[in-house]
Amino acid sequence: MPEIRQNEARHYESTLPESVHLLRHREHTPAHAHDQGHLVYPAAGVLSLATPAGSWIAPPNRAVWIPGGFEHQHHAHGVTDMRIVFMSAAQARLLPERPMVLTVTPLAREAVLRLTGGGVPSADVRDRLRLVTIDELSVAPEEPLHLPQPTDDRLLAVTRLVERELDSPATLTELGRRVGASERTLSRLFRSETGMTFPQWRTQLRIHSALLLLADGVSVLDTALACGWANPSAFIEIFTTLVGQSPGRYQRSLLSPAGY
């Protein structure tokens, strides 16, 4: 994929309002930002998007909306077919003011594929396809696939321990002893800085890690164990709730060019 440098962003937007990028496994883009808001959709593969405020993961049945001005990087997990659709300022106002993961309906998927597939005859047709996409995405609830990034040093120390020891069942009290902070303080910080409780945040981290492990071809059972679930059934249940499909189906979808 050609690099998108900061000083090229405005030209890139004006010349390539819709684009397709095929990314190799573990390929990533440099950090960049665009003036225009845009949708990023993995028609195949899995994308994670990292920002200073946290990270988002999009499997093939999800898209990430990124408003203008948000610095971010794309990371591919598995061979990934990344589709990008920029929105005008008026169109962007119909979508949220912050990044989020949204469900891609079959109709939205077809509109995005048509926009990015080449041969669209006119600007009017492109605008209508964008509005169809917006209509479909706007009625879908936000998907809980965002992992906020805390800033407090004590909280960062805890999150790094959890990331390093993902399969550990350590409580917040136990982790607090290791970083020199009370459970009460850490609990308050988790809520104020991430909008989540510690168990919610750790579950999100584990699901993010599971998405990447499954994309690497790790079995469902080994993924469950590596991410801290002693009971694979519990892992399958929560994964299905958050991602919208079972771990097995998600992993099989990565082998399909259609992403389903």
Protein architecture, described:
The chain has helices at residues 9-15, 89-92, 106-116, 123-138, 153-164, 172-179, 183-194, 198-215, 220-226, 232-243, 247-253, and strands spanning 18-23, 38-51, 54-58, 62-66, 73-86, 100-103, 142-143, 146-148. With 260 residues, it is an alpha+beta fold. Strands 1, 2, 3, 4, 5, 6, 7 and 8 form an eight-stranded antiparallel beta sheet that branches. It is globular, with a radius of gyration of 19 Å.
Descriptors for this entry?
260 residues, alpha+beta, Arc Repressor Mutant, subunit A, eight-stranded antiparallel beta sheet, 11 helices, 8 strands, disordered N terminus
What form results from the Cα inertia axes? globular
Helix content: 40-55%
Beta strands, count = 8
Q: What's the architecture of the largest domain, going by CATH? A: Sandwich
Q: How many angstroms separate the termini? A: 24 Å
Low-pLDDT windows of residues: 1-16
CATH top level class name of the largest domain: Mainly Beta
Helix tally equals 11
What letter string, H or E per element, gives the SSE order? HEEEEEHEHHEEHHHHHHH
Based on secondary structure, the structural category is alpha+beta
Mean pLDDT: 85
Q: How many domains is the backbone divided into?
A: 2
Kindly report the CATH topology of the largest domain. Answer: Jelly Rolls
Give a short synopsis of this structure.
It contains eleven helices and eight strands. The protein folds into two domains: 6-143, Jelly Rolls (Sandwich), CATH 2.60.120.810; 151-253, Orthogonal Bundle (Arc Repressor Mutant, subunit A). Strands 1, 2, 3, 4, 5, 6, 7 and 8 form an eight-stranded antiparallel sheet that branches.
